[in-house]
Amino acid sequence: MLFTRLGRIVAILALLLGIWHIVGGLMIATGAMTPEADALARYFGNKTTGQVIDRGFYEVLFGIALGILTEISFSTSRI
């Protein structure tokens, strides 16, 4: 049960972090945040906007997969 609860927390954090990377990368790529190089270095390290958005998608997928696994674990532990 401990790992189910920890898994849920990690899944939620991964989902939120992934959304943050996607939105932040898109804001920088579209020019909503200026200057671009300063914003990239400050928030995401020395990566391109495409790499930041890709990483965000991977984090969202990881969060969803882990969330599904924790839901399965939670439902089987109640039986």
Account of the protein in words:
- The chain is an all-alpha fold.
- The chain is built from three helices and no strands.
- Helix content is 85%, strand content 0%.
Counting DSSP E segments of at least 2 residues, the number of strands comes to 0
Q: How many distinct helices?
A: 3
Measured distance between first and last alpha carbons = 13 Å
Query: What general form does the structure show?
Result: elongated
The largest pleated sheet is described as:
none
H/E topology pattern: HHH
The quaternary structure here is: single chain
What structural category arises from helix and sheet content? mainly alpha
The amount of beta strand, in percent, is under 5%
Radius of gyration from CA coordinates: 16 Å
Taking pLDDT < 50 over at least 5 consecutive residues as the criterion, the unreliable ranges are none
Mean pLDDT over the full residue set = 88
Q: Which percent range fits the helix content?
A: over 70%
Note the main attributes of this structure:
single chain; 79 residues; mainly alpha; 3 helices; 85% helix
SSE arrangement:
Elements: H1 2-30, H2 36-44, H3 49-77
Give a nutshell description of this structure.
This protein is mainly alpha-helical and 79 residues long. It has helices at 2-30, 36-44, 49-77.
